[in-house]
């Protein structure tokens, strides 16, 4: 079963209980409540419920009359968990016979949510270091739960109140309003620190950012969106990113969304964009890497992954990101109130076209068309097709803009992406597969990878974007960072090479 879409499963019984200060044990089993006609009875993972019971007990515990019921409840939950573990162990044993998985992964599977890539992750998660990450993933989910419990408690939404100002932060609880709110007031600046924002929002940067931007643009009102459905959809998207990926995780999606917002604000583009363009641009940015397995397409093809055959070895990942997003859109019913032609035929297709444009193997195709348009000066942004093309370009730029950020942010992204590449390289080495370019930790250094990436992919595209914006202040800032960062990586590579030569000489 899919979880709540609120980051973790949220049992609304808990919120009711906390609001009324009534005994805690009864309401956990109360019937589901509804909000706006939509059921909010969403499952709380048994593990987290157990933790919650333990915390309550430590804090002084329930009254004597409640204690026996509490202990019965905890025992019942334990039994459920044990049954679940047994079930998973049975599945693990079954899979082991299939040669794909060995026993002892029950803990990993417990920590995993519904995902399409258990095979790859489980290989990676074998080492003790990775097990630590699974634990930290669980901690992260517990933190999100606590955040959303406070959200349920304080939310204007569940109290039936509509936020008064378009940009108000009704998704954040009071503890975080100050700092995260202050950051959101500067969301359009290029030095926005998405890592800090993610910490301030307890790992909910993508949901919070998207809701804020939808409010800023008035998209909720324009498309008559149901806030509960929107929140559920965004929660699903955020949760379907793999938090154990060093790079392709929900923070990357939030970062791309923030960059996309900066590009949508570019005067050359902003004046011409329709609400639908903005809606699609933000949605595509938020979901463009959803359920990314942390390995690239060639890896999926050479390991004969089922997605590679499903999408016939072409834009495998991007098609999966798109179709997953469409699945979540339909499951959440976010657009179900619109005429079917609008969302089924038009919106979904346009969303797909934007997400598919992020396929790096199509970089030259887009670059050449973009250059041609600029040379011929024939871009007419009154035309929907030309605006769509520019949204594709903007999303591509947002996706690879890390080297255009200030050094401190840029360096972190570079290290993360290389870490993900190296993990793939380690897997390839382990399974006697040819190691992919840039994935060999022993041969491909971070500075060397970054210099290649900047020179062949980032620079050519951003030079054209610079021309398109004629150039804007933001474009000038980005190019300034890009050149400085490239120079920094060159110095680091030089230092590294000199050190290696010195060491070799001494040997
Ligand atoms: Zn991406």
Automatic annotation (TrEMBL):
EC number: 3.1.4.-
Biological pathway: Purine metabolism; 3',5'-cyclic AMP degradation; AMP from 3',5'-cyclic AMP: step 1/1
Sites where the protein binds Zn(2+) 1: 252, 288-289, 399
Biased composition (Basic and acidic residues): 61-76
Top-level class of the enzyme under EC nomenclature: hydrolase
Region of interest called Disordered, as start-end residue ranges on this chain: 58-87
UniProt remark on cofactor binding: Binds 2 divalent metal cations per subunit. Site 1 may preferentially bind zinc ions, while site 2 has a preference for magnesium and/or manganese ions.
Entry-linked InterPro entries: HD/PDEase_dom, PDEase, PDEase_catalytic_dom, PDEase_catalytic_dom_sf, PDEase_CS
Any one biological process term the GO annotation gives: signal transduction
Binding site for AMP: 248-252, 289, 399, 450
Residues involved in Zn(2+) 2 binding: 289
SMART domains assigned: HDc
Cited SUPFAM superfamilies: HD-domain/PDEase-like
Domain (PDEase): residue spans on this chain: 172-496
Source taxon at top rank: Eukaryota
Family: Belongs to the cyclic nucleotide phosphodiesterase family. PDE7 subfamily.
Protein name as it appears in the record: Phosphodiesterase
């Amino acid at each position: 079963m899919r979880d709540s879409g609120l980051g973790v499963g949220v049992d609304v019984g808990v919120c009711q209980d906390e609001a009324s200060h009534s005994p805690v044990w009864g309401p956990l089993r109360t019937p589901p409540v509804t909000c706006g006609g939509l059921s909010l009875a969403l499952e709380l993972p048994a593990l987290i419920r157990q933790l919650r019971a333990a915390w309550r007990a430590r804090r002084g515990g329930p009254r004597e009359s409640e204690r026996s019921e509490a202990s019965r409840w905890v025992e019942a939950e334990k039994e459920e968990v044990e049954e679940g573990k047994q079930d998973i162990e049975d599945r693990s044993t079954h899979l082991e016979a299939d040669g794909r998985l060995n026993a002892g992964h029950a803990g990993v599977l417990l920590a995993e949510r519904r995902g399409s890539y258990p095979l790859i992750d489980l290989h990676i998660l074998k080492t003790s270091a990775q097990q630590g990450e699974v634990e930290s993933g669980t901690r992260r989910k517990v933190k999100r739960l606590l955040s959303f419990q406070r959200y349920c408690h304080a939310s204007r939404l569940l109290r039936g109140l509509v936020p008064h100002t378009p940009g108000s932060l009704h998704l954040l609880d009071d503890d975080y309003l100050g700092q995260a709110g202050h950051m959101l007031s500067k969301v359009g600046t290029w030095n926005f620190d998405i890592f800090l924002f993610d910490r301030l929002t307890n790992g909910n940067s993508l949901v919070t950012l998207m809701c804020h931007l939808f409010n800023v643009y008035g998209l909720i009102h324009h498309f008559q969106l149901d806030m509960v459905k929107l929140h559920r959809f965004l929660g699903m998207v955020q949760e379907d990113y793999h938090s154990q990926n060093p790079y392709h995780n929900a923070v990357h999606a939030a970062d791309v969304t923030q960059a996309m917002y900066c590009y949508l604000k570019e005067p050359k583009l902003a004046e011409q964009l329709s609400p639908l363009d903005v809606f699609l641009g933000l949605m595509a940015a938020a979901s463009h890497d959803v359920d990314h397995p942390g390995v690239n397409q060639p890896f999926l093809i050479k390991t004969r992954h089922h997605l590679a055959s499903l999408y016939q070895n072409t834009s495998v990942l991007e098609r999966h990101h798109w179709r997953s997003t469409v699945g979540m859109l339909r499951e959440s019913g976010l657009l179900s109130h619109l005429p079917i032609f609008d969302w089924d035929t038009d919106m979904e297709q346009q969303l797909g076209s934007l997400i598919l444009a992020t396929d790096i193997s199509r970089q030259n195709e887009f670059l050449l068309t973009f250059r041609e348009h600029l040379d011929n000066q024939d871009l007419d942004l009154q035309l929907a097709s030309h605006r769509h093309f520019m949204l594709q370009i903007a999303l591509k730029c947002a996706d690879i803009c890390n080297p255009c950020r200030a050094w401190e942010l840029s360096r972190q992204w570079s290290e993360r992406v290389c870490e993900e590449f190296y993990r793939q390289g380690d897997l390839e080495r382990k399974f006697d597969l040819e190691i992919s370019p840039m994935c060999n930790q022993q041969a491909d250094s971070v500075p060397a990878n970054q210099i290649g990436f900047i020179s062949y992919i980032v620079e050519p595209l951003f030079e054209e974007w610079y021309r398109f914006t004629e150039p804007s202040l933001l474009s000038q800032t980005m190019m300034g960072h890009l050149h400085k960062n490239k120079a920094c990586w060159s110095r680091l590579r030089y230092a590294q090479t000199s050190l290696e030569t010195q060491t070799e000489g001494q040997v």
